[in-house]
Amino acid sequence: MKDYIMRENCPLCKDKSIKFFVMDYKTNQYWKCKKCKFVFQNPIEEYSYNENYWVNATDPDGKEKNQTMMKEFKLKNWYGGITEFLKNKKPGKIFDVGCGLGYLLSSIPNTWEKYGSDSSDFAISFMKKNNPEIVIEELNLEKPPVKFQKKFDVVICYHVIEHIEYPDIFFKHLSMMVKNGGILIVGTPNIGSIAAKIFKGNFRLFGIGHLSLFNSKNLTDLFVKNNFKIIKTEYPFFNTEYFTLRNILRIMDIRKISPPFYGNIMTFYAKKKE
After folding, report:
1. Residue 252 lies in a domain
2. Which of 51, 81, 195, 271 is deepest in the core (most CB within 10 A)?
3. Phi, psi (5° rounding) for residue 52?
4. In a 10 Å sphere around its CB, with 0-12 CB exposed, 13-18 middle and 19+ buried, how is residue 87 labelled?
């Protein structure tokens, strides 16, 4: 077990002007940087991405789910317009950092040269069995030195950066994987969303494992800092099964966990400058 201590400065901008922000519905503490508005778990609650995470998970509404049986649901409701976006791109080398069970990569034609990584041994075993066309790479973008023998036309980092303890270092290394003129796609919870603001500690995307929470401004700044130009911003909701009257009405009851709602998730598509 790793012992985590209270952090004394912002993990994103390193400024010391941080203060307690909110305790979430699982009693995790989150702090906020006054300078860059980044929100982070402090101290970190350790969490494991073993088999139970994938097979016996419980969502914020208390519903049990087996993610190994949710491929079609996830492809329809989880990844926004990424697959459609890639249909208009010339096939090349693509890397999905933290690719989970490989569902997103599996939806992309095999004319692409597909690579993926994940910290979960269970997820890697699942991919090797079900998607042998995906080349699995060992990758740790939080600890230098990081060297890449290949550069990629497209790099995807979807629902990963919120799990990272030091996102500034991680993003710097992530950007190094992308060819000049290549595309980086990052999706993550949006702490600046309407639901996050009105539900506070009951925002559904707080919780164990979510260590780093961005708003659109400080995520944009991270792209710019690493030599990217944002070409598209997406807030997946209206084309998903989460877009229901029930979820819209739930936005009125702040005593409970917030519903899936527009703006909860943001996806940035960016091009690396030549």
Report:
1. yes
2. 195
3. -60, -35
4. exposed
CA distance 87 to 79: 14
CATH code for position 52: 3.40.50.150
If residue 172 lies in a helix (H) or strand (E), which one and from where to where?
A: helix 167-176
Q: pLDDT tens digits for 85-112? A: 999 899 999 999 999 999 999 999 999 9
Task: Give CA–CA dist 235/251, Å, rounded.
Answer: 17
How far apart CA 251 and CA 244 sit, in angstroms, is 11
Give pLDDT tens digits for 191-207.
999 999 999 999 999 98
Report CA-CA distances (Å) from 163 to 47, 206, 273.
10, 11, 27
The pair of structure tokens assigned to 231 is 């070409």
Whether residue 235 contacts residue 263, with contact meaning beta carbons closer than 8 Å, is answered with yes
* Residues 31 and 40: beta-carbon distance below 8 Å: yes
CB atoms within 10 A of CB 150: 12
Structural domain that includes position 56: 18-272
Element (H, E) at 184: strand 178-189
The torsion angles phi and psi of 150, rounded to 5 degrees, stand at: -115, 150
Instruction: Give the three-class secondary structure for 53.
Output: helix
Residue 1 lies in a domain: no
Q: Residue 267: enclosing H or E segment and its boundaries?
A: strand 265-272
DSSP 222-256: HHHHTTEEEEEEE---TTSTT--HHHHHHTT-TTS
Pairing of strands 113-117, 29-33: unpaired
Measured distance CA(111)–CA(108) in Å, rounded: 8
Mean pLDDT of 10-27: 97
The domain tally of the chain equals: 1
